[in-house]
Every structure is written in structure tokens, then in C-alpha cells.
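Follow-up to my post from last week.
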Amino acid sequence: MSGAEGLAVLLVVAVCAALMAGYPVALTLGGVSFAFAIIGTLSGIMDFGLLGALPQRIFGVMNNEVLLAIPLFIFMGVMLERSRIAEDLLDTMGRLFGAVRGGLGISVVIVGTLLAAAKGVVGATTVTMGLITLPTMLRHGYNPRLAAGTVAATATLAQVFPPATVLVLLGDQLANAYQQAQLAEGNFAPAAVSVADLFAGAIVPGFALVTLYILYIIARAILRPADAPAIPPDPAAPRGFAMARRLGIVLVAPVALILAVLGSILGGLATPTEAASVGAFGAILLAARRIGLRCPWPIDAAIVALFAMLPLRQFGPVAILPLIAVAVIGAGVALVRVHRDGTLGQVMVKTTQVTSMIFVILIGATMFSLVFRGLGGDDLVYRTLANLPGGTAGAILAVMLAMFLLGFVMDAFEIIFVVVPIVAPVLLRMPGVDPVWLGVLMAVNLQTSYMHPPLGPTLFFLRGVAPPEITTRHIYVGVIPFVLIQLAALVILWFVPGLATALPHALYGR
Amino acid sequence: MASANRIERIASLIDGLNGAIGRGAAWLALAIVLVQFAVVILRYVLGIGSIWLQESILYAHAALFLLAAAWTLQAGGHVRVDVFYSDATPRTKAMIDLAGALLLLLPFTAVLLWFAWPYAARSWAILEHSRETSGLPIVYLLKTLIPLFAVMMALQGIAQAIRALDVLRRP
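User reply:
Got it. Predicted complex:
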């Protein structure tokens, strides 16, 4: 190892140490890296001018159309949550399945998955689910460990279930890395990997995880009925047609919206950014409809008009313009409603701050990558990974272990921005490593680390919002079965890459 | 204590300025949703593509995350590794914030400004136009957001340091 590479290793150690102090991650990354750039320049190892690439890199992020999907997805998720649509969903699902043993737990998993998919940010999903679902489950006599474990595990699905924000960012980083890897191999017409590929790749593993969670709850309800009791029927609850109508409103609409967004991306009809805007706009309409239930028709009319546009477009502007007018009026009514209600303001503030948080980390991580490369750190990583015993498998295993441990202290975003650009180009140059498989493996791995005791961040988020009768011990013990499910899933995914690669292959012929 | 009051006023002034800009930028979140949805309708229903409309969304997005960053810092929205921080005393937290602002934030924003200023200036010198012929002719404004981000973050770092010093000075 040369002096420069020694400095690169020291940079990583120093960043990790400084992060533990608790100053915002983005600025710690930028500040510590800058200090090392000065040391490197003064000792003649690094050329300070390399940092001149910084504005150009930031400008690249500002012009990235894929990353534009991030604020749109966050907007959709926060709107569905703040307008209490998610709460309604859980309430109705609970009534539908609650009469069965374990039914409430299963509803929590299903609604939590939808919520996780819509929000794509683990911390936010944990907080919402912890506040809404934990008290309900406890009130109906669920075992506190089972309840806490179910909520913690389901919330982490926000890392892997498309359209997760994590997958958008991971897809973007992997696309760059894959291109670099192929250029390094001398392939100057490189194949591309896209966010849609990663979404498609994550679907089967995502559903497999949800199914395993549900199977576990069913098994538990059968073996130990006292842990997951049935809910006595509520005499005030609507029945028959009234129940079906309520289901149609609270269940079908948001589920259809999320499925439409996902479907149009996977079907190749729309880019993730375009689909996300449809999701966000739809969320505004649904939220406004819930607020103004007494007068839903302007919004219903707008929804019908939007749906009618596609088949009627062949008749030209004469047929379309009235529909657009109806949609614009409905949208106007919807905006006034969500604004007066105060929901819009909250959603805009939350969306803006979360988006800014993510992108400022990206800026700090860009500084880190520049300095790490300037010190020759990427060559060091390449040599180390290439010389590990076990070849490709050994290298991937080492990276997965490192990401797993980093997951205890760092956010998925930070790991994706810092680790992926350094290791992915190396791993993707190795024979037989599929970028989609690698991405899904990374996502499930980070998800597992997120709920792994004693340091998994989800456990802390949940601790913060759980009712007092739930102890830290309940959460730690309760999540263990789910962690075992995760580890089993990782092992299966390792040996059967087809779980991740088959669907994108079938859809896009990759 | 008159000078202490004046310094405290500077911190409040910075908070007010960055807060106002950030809250203004938050409206861009709604603009992005509405304009992007309009683009989708134009493209899929009417078959019209508009490069400048698409570019304006990118501008709004860039302005959203760069101009709201300082306000997000003020509101505590930038994630921290809080394994230790969350349980620390207010004094320890103030010490971390003071050291972080002086040793991490300010140097980082300084180097960013150092390189971003000439980067934006070069764009102003030629009044840079979008690479697309029908794109927006105001790339220099977009590039100016980068040094502006650096300045706003630095100011917020100064406010953070003032507030932390205030906590530390109290007995």
C-alpha cells in the first residue's frame, strides 16, 4: 500500500469516526473529505484541482431526470399519509380480516407494504405505522412482541418494495457503475440498466418477503392462538353493501393508484418520473375527495375525465379539450380543499425537507468520492476485492457484510451514495455478476440490517413512537423471527439469482 | 451584554432569511407535481412534447433542494447518526454543533464556493443557453444556484455556531 492509499484508508476511518459524533451526515462527509484533500495536496499526493469537478458533478445531479422521481414519490406518499387515507385503509382491512385469528396482523403487513411502497422512506413509514397500528394491535390482545416485530419488519419493506426511493437512487448509481465497468472492460457500446429494471427485479423478492411474513403470522396464530386473537365483530360496523361501498372507496382507490403507477413503469409505458407525477397528482385528488366527502362530484368528474382521455384522444382536440377543462376544474377544487385543510402545506414542507436532505447527502458524498479517488482509493478497493479468497463470491460477500455493518449507523441513502460508486464498478466487472441481481441483493441486505438488533435504525424509530407498554426487549425479541426470514431470503436470493433477474428479463429481454 | 444581543440578532436574521427562502422553495414541490403531470397529459394524450417545459421542471427541482437546504438544516431535517447524539446533554450537543459548524460545514461550503463561483461566472460571461435549441436560455441562472447554496449553508452554519455558543455560555 502506498502513502496515498494509506491516506485513503485513513479518510474512511476518519469519516466513520466523525459521523458517530452526530453532526449532520452530509456535512460531515464533505468537511472531513475536504480536510483530507488539504493533507493530500500538502504532502504532494493529490492534485487539489481535482476538486474543481465538484460544481460540474452537482450540476449533473441537478439535470438528472431520473432523480426527479424522488420528490414526486415522496409527495405521493406523504399526501396519502397526512390525509389519513392510510389510516382508513388499515381500519377497513382490519375489519375485513380481523374476525379471523391473525387477521389484524395480516392486514398490518398488507397495508404496511402499500404504505412502505408509497413512501419509500423507512423512518417515516415506521413512525406512521407505529403510531397507527401498534395501539390497535395491543388493544385487541396481540402479543406485544409479535405486534412490534410485525410493524418493524413491514416498515423496512420501504427499502425494497417498488417504487421505493432507495431503488430509484440505487438504480441511478448502478447505471453509472455498470457503464463504467463495461467501459473498463473495453466495451464501448455498453448495455444499460435502468430504474425500471431494478423495480422489476425487486418485485418477486418483495412479494416473497411479504408472503413469508404473512405465513409466519398465520403459523403463529395457529400454534399460539392467544398471541394473535380474532377481533369480536363490531356491531356498529357497516355490513353487506355498505361495507362493500366503503371498501371500494378506502381500499380500491389508493391501491389502484399505487398499482397504476407501478404497472405503467414496469410495462414500459412511462418513465418512473412520469408515473410518479401521476401518483402524486392522484394522491392530491384522493386526499381532497376524503376531505370534502359531502361534495365529491367535481373530483369524481375530474377522475372520470382523466380516464376518458386515453381512449378518446384519437378523436383529436375537439373531444379532449372539454375533458381537460373538467380535469382542470376538478384539480382546482382539489387544491383549494387540501390547502384550506392545511394538508397541502404540511405535505409541501415535508416533501421539500426530505428531498433536500437526500440531495445534500448526495453532494457531500460527491466530495467524498472525489477525494477518495484522488488518493487512489478506488485502485485499492479494486485490488483488495479482486484478491479476496473465493473470487467473485468472496468479493460480493465482503461488500455485503460491510454494507450490513454500515447499515447500523448510516442511512440507506448514505450507503448508496458513498459505497456503491466505489465498489459496484469493481463487482460488475467480475464474471457472472448481474447488475439487477446485485442491486436487489444490496437492497434486501440493507433492509435486513435496518431491523437487526441491537442497532437497526428501525428499532430506534419504533422505540420512539411505541406506546409505553412496549419495551425495548419486546421489540428486539419480536423482530428476531423476521430477521431469520430475511436471512433465509438473502441466502435463497444468493443461490437463485433468477428470483431477481427473471422478471426484468421477461419484461425487457435483458 | 449588548454585543451578545447583537450577535443573537444576526442569528435570527439568518434564520429568518433562510426560512423565508426555504418556505418559498417548498411551493416548488407542488409546481413540480402539477407541471410534470401536465407534461404527461400533453405527451400521452395530445402527443405534444415540450423541451422547455421539461427543463423548467428540472430547474424547479434543483432550486427546491438547493434553496431549501439551509432551512432544512435549521429545522433539523438533515439526518445525523444519532447513536450517541440523541442521548447527549444539551451542552454536549451544542459542543458538537459548534465544532461541526466551524470545522466541517464552513470549510466545505468555502471550498464549494471557491470552485462554484468561477463555474457560474463562466456561464454568465457567455449567457449560456440550453444545449437543446428549444430549451431554456437561462442556464447561467441554474448554475448560480450552486454558489448560492454554498453561501446560504455557510450563513446557516454561522447561525448554528452562534446558537451553540449561547448554550455553552449559559452556566
